[in-house]
Amino acid sequence: MTVSAVRPAVPLPIIIVAGCIIAAIGFGTRGSFGLFTLPVTADLGLSREQWGMAMAVQNLVWGIAQPFAGGMADKYGSARVLAVGGIIYALGVLGMAFSTDALSMTLTAGVVTGVGIAIASFGVVMAAFGRVVPAEKRSFVFGIATAASSAGQFIFAPLGQGFIDAFGWQMALVYIAVLLLLIIPLSSALRGRTESVPGQADLPFMQALSRAWGYGSYRLLVIGFFVCGFHLAFINVHMPAYLVQCGLSPEVGSWTIAVIGLFNIAGSLLSGWLGSRLPKQMLLATIYFLRAVAIAAFLLLPVSEITAYAFAAAMGLLWLSTVPLTAGLVTLFFGPRYMGMLYGIAFLSHQIGSFVGVWLGGYVYDQTGAYDLVWYLGILLGLASAAIHIPINERTDGNFALKRA
């Protein structure tokens, strides 16, 4: 499939900088939600499972909405989509601050915020980058966008904890909602949408998805991405509370999340750089295998500040390093024309994994008083995902699946 991109309305460096700031704000906000686990559950009288369900619904709604957000960005342009997403995201976080029970928290933190994250996500940003960046540089630029998301997590984790300590959890959410509104002016730099050349198929959503799903390597990629979501969501939401349970302070929990974000900057950049030089599927298999090893080592060693930060550093290197490789394979298989939508489908699988990881973490804790069973399951899933990625065929002409019949 041959695709041409609209000439950028603004210089490419400005597009990349604006997109990276959007990714940092959006992902940094989402990455700070685990800090609210203890104060919210204590103040509102929620069980750990009820809070986990709200976060699980958020991840699931995010995943369901992501393909449609990507499809709208492909068709109507990223700027409009991101601006609307920023407004919805801010409203959802603001609604969290005024929630009073499990149902209202599920609606605000789960449904509204989940839709906002999807529409203002780094997935839409990467679709914009894929439209204007040359093919040989896409993996690296995707790595830059992912690293920016991690920088947001590094910034927002201590910032969110500082807000909570100084103003309480409700006002902390209000201030974060205000910061989310910065997405609106920044989105104007990402104007434009992908255009087709004459004779190219312009397929409806379901037809494009059907042809893509017929490609076996894409199916394996989508299935394997489930595990990434399981790992990230469980650790992000439950790790701070787990460390407090082990006798460490809430500040250690917040800095653990921050360390993950800091080291993920290096991991994402390295992943993007290696993805343009080595087989992406083998890099993905290695990442999932190393995650399983890191979790096993963390469980075998006594929990302390040193082991917590060491585990956070190791997981940070492996945290979002899957994203530039996964996005790179999607564009390699099918080209940039449907990248937003088809990466969104892969991300839906990621978010189903997130739903399971967050909810199961809360459920297992309420039933057993510990998170051990979910940690062990994370090890097994990491090994399984490593095995699934090995057979993926990294072929440069995989975009045949979307040619006009």
TrEMBL record:
Keywords: Membrane, Transmembrane, Transmembrane helix. Pfam families: MFS_1. PROSITE patterns: MFS (PS50850), PROKAR_LIPOPROTEIN (PS51257). One of its GO terms (molecular function) is transmembrane transporter activity. SUPFAM superfamilies: MFS general substrate transporter (SSF103473). It comes from the Bacteria. The chain crosses the membrane at residues 12-31, 81-99, 105-128, 140-160, 166-186, 220-243, 255-275, 282-303, 309-334, 341-361, 373-392. Residues 12-396 form the Major facilitator superfamily (MFS) profile domain. This is Predicted arabinose efflux permease, MFS family.
